[in-house]
């Protein structure tokens, strides 16, 4: 009775905007202590909905009051069911079963800007490295697209303040459907067609014996060798006209590849152009962590390179496979107008910590928006199981990729070579994704830049900032309405298809401000050329860096 009186008193005082006594606030606190969502800057609170405490209130009183006021904004799930729309198939009386990339309709409360979290394939619950997808309003109700790499299990909702719903389910996630329109273009006659192998150090690949290299390549069905020709502004002498001519005579195509850093993009372009002048059948740009956020450098590099080699020379771009894990990498520049015609994502599934199926499908989903043929790089190092190598080959065939390749010659073990050379049998149970990246207000990264560049062709007020802001949302909804698409403000398949039919408006990126010259500046002890910098002993081009003697020279993360 005493508790009920305190609760009623607290409700009245809160409604009148009065301070709540500590004893009353404590009586209304949720059981178990009532943890609250993090506020701005990581502090605990309600993100600005609770007025600051008066000097007479204790910290515990303020916390308890915040807990009480925030309870009513927690999202809740009352019901979730499979939604038969598009290619989504729902079984009768099996409403908790849905295909990956299919739709779930969710009923409940407090859905504003909520995301739905699913268990990730290989994880034990949705709270271990979960996948999320935005919950969006449609004419059919609140709908979520099931992520491609989602696993069966319980789901939950979470709003931007961190408040979560109770778990709901389990939801059974079935394989995504296979559709013809997801297959890559038919093969052409480029050096990227067929099977390739990457050579880092020629001296460590069959001892630089070109006849032995050619014999082993032909036994494994390899028709193109990607041989390192440059590292930043340093041209590698192992790549030469004599080498190219000798391998051509042995029936192999030869492409150069260079690792780039972005400190001197024009100088790097000159190194790339030299490999082309030496007779390379194609050139691959390997841009990874060092180019993150360097849109100016990427644009400068490509402008200088294209000026030297021409607009139609075959260029490839290789980098991390999961675009949404590397939001600041300038994929939209390297794969955009004037850029590379071929996309070679590094799908090193074992190092990522997943399966060939999951890695390939996630890579395809994240990269398809750039409209370049996907020529994946598979893993033939680090003890990749023979069954995984075979599965990757089957996936390449099922997706209709015009070509693929392996990293790397010197790192492949005898068992990995045997898996490459074994006859290939057709794969089964291969699910090709039909979904597209679902961007929504608040999304950030290069995929948003790509969206904005296309949207700006129809609505010039669209920024190209990489942040999905209110202007981008308003313009996207107007675009959807104009094209007969429900104005959800979310980039679904129909929206991407209509957007990518436009020519993107590519901005001219300004140069970055000059770096400081102090101890942590570009030339300082910890700067880019210092002992731990990009070109220092442990940097990306140092002895243990990505292109050093013990480095990998290729990105192995997602």
Shape: globular
Please give the largest β-sheet.
Answer: 9 strands, mixed
Classification by helices and strands? alpha/beta
* Sequence stretches where pLDDT stays below 50 over 5 or more residues: 1-71, 178-186, 522-557
Q: Please give the alpha-carbon distance between the first and last residues.
A: 58 Å
Query: Share of helix among residues?
Result: 25-40%
Let me know the average pLDDT: 80
Describe the model.
With 558 residues, this protein is α/β, with parallel strands linked by helices. It contains 15 helices and 18 strands. Strands 10, 11, 12, 13, 14, 15, 16, 17 and 18 form a 9-stranded mixed beta sheet that branches. Strands 2-9-8-4-5 form a 5-stranded mixed beta sheet, with no helix packed on it. Helix 4 links the parallel strand 10 and strand 11. Helix 1 (2-15) crosses helix 2 (22-28) and helix 2 runs parallel beside helix 3 (59-71).
